[in-house]
Automatic annotation (TrEMBL):
Top-level taxonomy: Eukaryota, Metazoa, Chordata, Craniata, Vertebrata
Residue ranges of domain FAD-binding FR-type in the record: 413-549
All copies of domain EF-hand, residue ranges: 57-92, 93-128, 137-172
Keyword Cell cycle: no
UniProt protein name: NADPH oxidase 5
GO BP of this protein: defense response; superoxide anion generation
Transmembrane stretches, start-end: 211-231, 237-261, 288-312, 332-357, 369-387, 556-579
Main location: membrane
One GO location term (cellular component): NADPH oxidase complex
Membrane topology: Multi-pass membrane protein
Length: 738
């Protein structure tokens, strides 16, 4: 689907209906080519072909558009009719578009729109936007829009009344179009937002720590290679290359584990080093070092093969090539001549680990393959110690720290089994787990943990963000999206009640827990999807994430896409608890107010929370939490509110689309009247489509609430777009990896 309003944006003069001859010829050529693709041999488009090309969910709009495009009433659309219709919709003036829209809504063609026609249109609008509302709400929306437009109370909406109603929504008519399939509009000549070139001020602002670390890493490798190669310059070029690569590998193969010391990294986030080191990119640096290790190992191996080939050809050598490469007979190495066979074994293990670490294996239901092959680092270390005489010296410190962290983690996680006490199955196959919180489990908003449920998989540990606030003392919340084998097994097991271990006191225990917490309910509980249970599990953590920086920000912009809201759910709940703690009420007049929100741990002046969902039901995950947050700020003025919510539903078509403008107008009218959104029930109006990030960030910058930091959790594709915008506006950008 093309983006609503794109044609008008692609043609800066679209609202005036003018194009230069070159653009017009290019556009007509594009339409002709697409028409021939759709029409086939008969050179006309029938209704079914039109529906398929237009890609509409509801046949009402396809039939109405087809009827209006078919100017001669022949039952088919010719190339000329298609060009005329597209010219009007894409390059026509606002009045032409308005007349077309009125004809779409005027189903019986009598020159006016009655309430039943409007209800039919709005019902189709709901289906096009994937919005499900009860019939009573549909009737309410219909009457709200009809009564607003029917100024003379005649019982019909005339063309003039519809025009006057649309004028209440500035900018809509100028960009009004149909978000149809790609054949409808030619490719735009405007490119996407280009990322700033490296080493610009904006790029340096967001990447200086990474660039400095990369420069240091590169410089260290050049130094190590040069020193080792220089020390063996009398032995020939192949030995120099092999020894240089070997010295670099000594460092890489020992330091690569440091990047995965999660407890150490979590501790470092609490120190001043967090401002210097790129701790948020530890996984990316770990992957980079993996690529470097593979590359250096291949060069190291080839250099030795060349050296062995030269030795085998030498008259003074008593060994053949295969003996030098595969056996201990030549006595190469510091432990019984094991350098050559251990080198071959190391290369095979490394290539196996590298292959099984690819994203196509990790993210396509084969995580176990990645997990078990990655454990080969243990035999690799043994082989490296036998292979190189100096590797144990490089491994001594990082290996000891790594071993201690693993032992501590194993002891802590297996010290006592915890229990999953409640499960709630949410829309879009999300499993909400409530786990009994251990006494010494202290974490910060946005932290994550590793979870093991033996009844699902005995040896598998998976990381999940904690969605509950640290102030919640009795339980830990996890919201788990079903996207892989393990998470799907978890959801299906609870759905079929295979894992549920019920006892006679489960309701009493749950009631006691709820009362002791005194917390708001974030998830909407339904009896058929809500279970009390007592299932053994183990956790390992908590571990820090980039979101720990949020409370040290001045103006934080939190952006969650889908289940990417989970780290922000914990943060928003923590904010809510802190607000409640600072709330004061006069005992005489019952007037309530908030004391200053700043303290040593919280420097926030403003928080903008943006949640983007594709489907309507996804908002149910945390709608109660967001409702409570709005209630806490109900007495604040719009300018004085500390937290501002922004909700977007990408499956809903925008106001610029002819298939949605009536619905969005009705939703705006009802929201203004009832002071709440019809889709989520929040005071915040759910916006259709995707955010216009340029406008969003312009508004944030204009508020001037302090230094802006943007925190994102969601898809990598959207992360690239947001990073580019942040670099344009000079905002710091932090991404949660999940």
């Amino acid at each position: 689907m093309s983006v609503p309003g794109k044609p008008a944006q692609a043609d800066s003069e679209g609202c005036t209906g003018t194009m230069n001859a070159k653009e017009d010829a290019k556009w007509l050529q594009w339409v002709t080519r697409q028409f021939e693709t759709i029409a086939g041999e008969d050179r006309v488009i029938n209704l079914q072909e039109f529906k398929a090309a237009l890609n509409v969910k509801e046949s009402f709009f396809a039939e109405r558009f087809f009827t209006l495009f078919d100017s001669d009433g022949s039952g088919t659309i010719t190339l000329q009719e298609l060009q005329e219709g597209l010219t009007l919709l894409i390059h026509g003036n606002p009045m032409d578009k308005l007349k077309f829209l009125f004809q779409v809504y005027d189903v019986d063609g009598n020159g006016s729109i009655d309430p039943d026609e409007l209800r039919t249109v709005l019902q189709s609008c709901l289906q096009e936007s994937s919005i499900s509302l009860p019939d009573e709400k549909l009737d309410q929306l219909t009457l709200a829009l009809f009564e607003s437009a029917d100024k003379d109370c005649s019982g019909d909406i005339t063309f003039e009344e519809l025009r006057d109603e649309l004028q209440c929504f500035p900018g809509v008519m100028e960009n009004l179009t149909i978000s149809a399939a790609h054949w409808l509009t030619p490719p735009t000549t405007q490119g996407h937002l280009h990322r700033p070139r490296p080493l610009t001020a904006a790029y340096w602002h967001n990447h200086r720590s990474q660039l400095l670390c990369l420069a240091t890493y590169l410089g260290l490798h050049v130094l190590l290679f040069a020193l080792a190669a220089s020390a063996h310059r009398d032995l020939g070029i192949s030995i120099m290359v092999a020894k240089g690569c070997g010295q670099c590998l000594n460092f890489d193969c020992s330091f690569i584990v440091v990047l995965m010391l999660r407890r150490c990294l979590t501790w470092l986030r609490t120190t001043w080093l967090a401002q210097v080191l790129p701790l948020d990119q530890n996984i990316q640096f770990h992957q980079l070092m993996g690529y470097v290790v593979v590359g250096l190992s291949l060069v190291h191996t080839v250099a030795h093969i060349v050296n062995f080939a030269l030795q085998a050809q030498s008259e003074s050598s008593s060994y053949q090539f295969w003996e030098l490469l595969l056996t201990t007979r030549p006595g190469i190495g510091w432990v019984h001549g094991l350098a050559s066979p251990t080198g071959v074994a190391l290369l095979l293990l490394l290539l196996l680990m590298f292959t099984c670490s690819s994203s196509c294996i990790r993210r396509n239901g084969h995580f176990e393959v990645f997990y078990w092959t990655h454990l080969s680092y243990l035999p690799m270390w043994v082989l490296l110690i036998l292979h190189g005489p100096n590797f144990w010296k490089w491994l001594l410190v990082p290996g000891t720290v790594f071993f201690l962290e693993k032992v501590i983690g194993l002891v802590v996680s297996r010290m006592a089994a915890l229990s999953i006490v409640e499960v709630n199955l949410l829309p879009s196959k999300v499993t909400h787990l409530l786990i009994k919180r251990p006494p010494l489990f202290n974490y910060r908003p946005g932290d994550y943990l590793y979870l093991n449920i033996p009844t699902i998989a005995r040896y598998e540990w998976h990381p999940f963000t904690i969605s509950s606030a640290p102030e919640q003392k009795d339980t830990i919340w996890l919201h788990i999206r079903s996207e892989g084998q393990w998470t799907n097994r978890l959801y299906e097991s609870f759905k079929t009640s295979d894992l549920v271990d019920c006892d006679s006191k489960r309701l009493s225990r749950s009631l006691k827990m709820r009362r002791s917490q005194g917390r708001p309910q974030v998830s909407e509980l339904s009896p058929e999807n809500h279970q009390f249970c007592n299932i053994k599990c183990y956790i390992n953590g908590p571990y820090g994430t980039p979101t720990r920086r949020i409370f040290a920000s001045e103006h934080a912009v939190l952006i969650g896409a889908g289940i990417g809201i989970t780290p922000f759910a914990s943060i928003l709940q923590s904010i809510m608890y802190r607000y409640q703690k600072r709330k004061r009420t006069c005992p005489n007049c019952q007037h309530s107010w908030m004391e200053g929100i700043q303290d040593d741990d919280m420097k926030l002046h403003k928080v903008d929370f943006i949640w983007i969902n594709r489907h309507q039901r996804a908002f149910e995950w945390f709608v109660s939490l967001l409702t409570k947050l709005e209630m806490d700020q109900a007495e604040e003025t719009q300018e004085g509110r500390f937290l501002e919510l922004h909700m977007y539903m990408t499956s809903a078509l925008s106001k610029n689309d002819m298939k949605a403008i009536g619905l969005q107008m009705a939703l705006d009218l009802v929201a203004k009247k009832e002071k709440k959104d019809s889709i989520t029930g929040l005071q915040t109006r759910t916006q259709p489509g995707r955010p216009d990030w340029n406008k969003v960030f312009q508004k944030v910058a204009a508020e001037d609430k302090g230094k802006v930091q943007v925190f994102f959790c969601g898809s990598p594709a959207l992360a690239k777009v947001l990073r580019a915008h942040c670099e344009r506006f000079g905002f710091r950008f932090f991404q949660e990896n999940f």
